[in-house]
Recover the amino acids of this structure.
């Protein structure tokens, strides 16, 4: 075999190796990515190991403050491939709201136990690891309406900065029909949480 032929074969094998990773979605802060690797491979991303389905599918979310450059590692036994991606950085809006009831901004001591109890319920619900691949079907809008809060924005209530917003708020009249954005199982239903309603 000539050197040129060997180099061509090596390039073909290397290209097949790189083609084993497929990722769809936007590499932007707050983005959702759906990927696929070869069957039996593991994925490592920012210190975590996303669940990989028996068919090689996985999903990862890019947080509000993900750095500009990230790496994703794919392992197959002792072999490892590392991919580098550029993440688009976002500029987040700040929303200042005055006239909010002060007990909502700075809760009185008598509701601390309630807040802690509700936070435990949320943590417990979020800790459930569901192997479902419903994310492969995509997501739809739960209802139509004005967007009143966007992911990553920070709200300042009565001059006091609070945690960034990690959801999307859509305004609609009370009683409006809201559909699930994707198939799934409701893990927690609560009639009135102190912060969430």
């Amino acid at each position: 075999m000539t050197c040129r032929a060997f180099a061509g074969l090596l390039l073909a094998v290397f290209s097949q190796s790189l083609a084993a990773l497929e990722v769809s979605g936007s590499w932007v802060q707050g983005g959702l990515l759906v990927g696929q690797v070869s069957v039996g491979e593991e994925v490592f991303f920012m210190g975590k190991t996303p669940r990989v389905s028996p068919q090689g599918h996985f999903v990862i979310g890019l947080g509000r403050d993900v750095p500009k450059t990230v790496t994703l590692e794919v392992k197959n036994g002792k072999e490892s491939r590392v991919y580098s991606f550029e993440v688009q950085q976002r500029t987040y809006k700040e929303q200042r709201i005055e006239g909010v009831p002060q007990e909502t901004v700075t809760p009185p001591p008598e509701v601390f136990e309630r807040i802690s109890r509700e936070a435990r319920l949320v943590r417990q619900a979020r800790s459930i690891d569901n192997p479902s691949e419903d994310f492969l079907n995509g997501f739809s809008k739960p209802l139509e309406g004005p967007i009143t809060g966007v992911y990553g924005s920070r709200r300042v209530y009565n001059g006091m900065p609070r945690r960034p917003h990690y959801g999307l708020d859509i305004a609609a009249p009370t009683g409006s029909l809201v559909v699930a954005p994707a198939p799934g199982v409701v893990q927690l239903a609560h009639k009135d949480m102190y912060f969430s309603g």
Summary: Residues 1-19 have pLDDT under 50 and may be disordered. The chain is about 20% helix and 25% strand.
